[in-house]
Design goal:
Blueprint lengths: L3 H22 L2 H4 L1 H16 L6 H19 L3 H22 L16 H23 L12 H10 L1 H8 L9 E3 L3 H7 L3 E3 L6 E3 L8 H12 L5 H13 L4 H22 L1 H9 L3 H16 L5 H14 L12 H20 L1
Helix pairs in contact: 1-5, 4-5, 6-12, 7-10, 10-11, 11-12, 11-16, 12-13
Length: 350
């Protein structure tokens, strides 16, 4: 007679095998993951949105403590091995079935752009950012301040999702659990502004980042809640959602991030021209950028590059060939978006 321990072992092993197989062959169409994910997200968000604190952060503390407790409590070596197998296998299985299979979704087509196109779009955002900054502050040398608290920002950002999801032709979810991470200081030292918990699907924001970064970061993490796994696409969704807001400060938050990516890409290709465009920015915009830079320098530490390297390998393992550089590929999408606007304007005028 097979013991209950072995029944459980074979059950977990079977799901581990199936999960690994689907992950290897990319069999999303076989399991119709879009429907499964939508059902799972609606279930989890209905629960976690009612909890004022982060359930996902709490699990990261409770789970390893539980493992240590059961491992030490067990005397038999065979049972220790089984417990280790269960505690290691379960997160792997849950990660992919809860959220990780989104990495198998089809990527957006990225365009090849010329240096002149990059200059044109960067100049466009320089003008846009300067105009937004002055429109808000009425003073070219005054930085933009976010006066709303976290809950007010969250409500405003969620409000514009109806338009954004329509643009991206995806189903709009009605519930969005967005929490301040209990591990914000740790996230700062690791170099992360936020993250989505792949088990509870809560979006987490690092409370230490400059408040001017909050609107875009929230929108980026919401993109992951929609199953948008590729970082450049999540960046683009986040930017479009800030642009769609009726709040000027939220618009500016996204425009500033878009400009940062564009200038970074431009300076890699032509440092002098990149610096010239930076010189065209209003003093208030420069102060907002300095605020972001000061935050990064405050939490700079020797371990961050190694953490980023591990994350880089994780992204490459999950179909993002550029690894951590995938974030910067949003430049392709910004240029494509700009070109489509120009083409629409030409069509409308003809």
């Amino acid at each position: 007679m097979i013991s209950k321990d072995y029944n459980c072992f074979f059950f977990i092993f079977f799901f581990l095998f199936i999960t690994s197989l689907i992950n290897k062959i990319g069999g999303l169409n076989i399991i119709n993951y879009d429907i499964l994910y939508s059902i799972w997200y609606n279930l989890t968000s209905s629960l976690t949105i009612l909890i004022p604190f982060s359930l996902g952060d709490s699990l990261y503390v409770i789970y390893p403590i539980s493992f240590i407790y059961f491992f030490r409590k067990t005397k038999l070596r065979r049972k220790k091995l089984l417990i280790s197998f269960y505690f290691l296998s379960f997160p792997y299985i849950m990660f992919y079935w809860s959220w990780g299979f989104n990495y198998e979704r089809k990527k957006s087509n990225s365009i090849e752009y010329t240096y002149n196109e990059l200059i044109e779009v960067t100049e466009y955002y320089v003008t846009k950012v300067n105009n937004s900054q002055f429109s808000i502050t009425k003073n070219k040398n005054k930085p933009v301040k976010v006066e709303d608290n976290f809950n007010e920002l969250r409500k405003k950002i969620v409000k514009s999702l109806a338009q954004t999801t329509k643009q991206f032709e995806i189903k709009n979810f009605t519930k969005h659990p967005i929490k301040i991470s209990q591990f914000s200081t740790l996230l700062s030292y690791m170099g992360f502004s936020g993250y989505i918990n792949p088990f509870t699907l809560e979006a987490h924001i690092n409370k230490n980042i400059p408040k001017i970064s909050y609107p875009f970061t929230i929108s980026h993490e919401i993109a992951h809640q929609y199953g948008i796994s590729f970082e450049n696409e999540a960046n683009f969704f986040g930017l479009k959602n800030t642009f769609n807001s009726n709040d000027k400060v939220i618009n500016y938050s996204g425009e500033l991030v878009a400009l940062q990516y564009l200038i970074y890409d431009l300076r890699l290709k032509d440092k002098n021209n990149g610096s010239k465009l930076i010189d065209k920015l209003n003093g208030g915009v420069i102060k907002n950028l300095q605020e972001k830079r000061s935050y990064s320098e405050k939490f700079k530490n020797p371990f961050e590059p190694y953490i980023k390297k591990i994350y880089d390998l994780f992204l490459k393992r999950n179909n993002q060939n550029k690894g951590i550089k995938s974030y910067n590929l949003v430049v392709n999408l910004l240029i494509q978006d700009y070109q489509s606007k120009i083409n629409r304007s030409v069509d409308d005028s003809s």
